[in-house]
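One chain is below:
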Amino acid sequence: MTGGAGRIPVSECPVLPPRAAPFAGVQSVVVEEDLAVQMTLGIDVACRAAHEASLADESGRFVWSGRRFRTTVAELERLWESIPPGAAVRVVMEPTGSAWVPLAACFRRRGATVIMVPPEQSADLRDYPSKHAKSDRLDSRMLARLP
């Protein structure tokens, strides 16, 4: 539904959490969006090689990790389809060169929240669990587990 003059479109209306019914016989409506599982997609962005992605649920457990993909429509579609349907998606990545721009645009168009982590911060976080290890897979897993 689109809004007329002075009306807010339905798509821009805030969704309030369901409440218990105040009277017998009145049912509360459960909004599906409130029940969505939060998923975090960590992406180690590459300039020339394939990107590497890991997906974690809201408790930090990996649904999958080590998925490599390139910035093509087909591969981005395949990656998006590997995320459980109906999940609220947060994408976390380091802005590497300009390679992050089409990724961010693609995921934002699909309704994901995109978060950029400065390379210095992710390097510090990566150094904490593994003092001397560096790999794209570790980077994507660490990014997927950021709070």
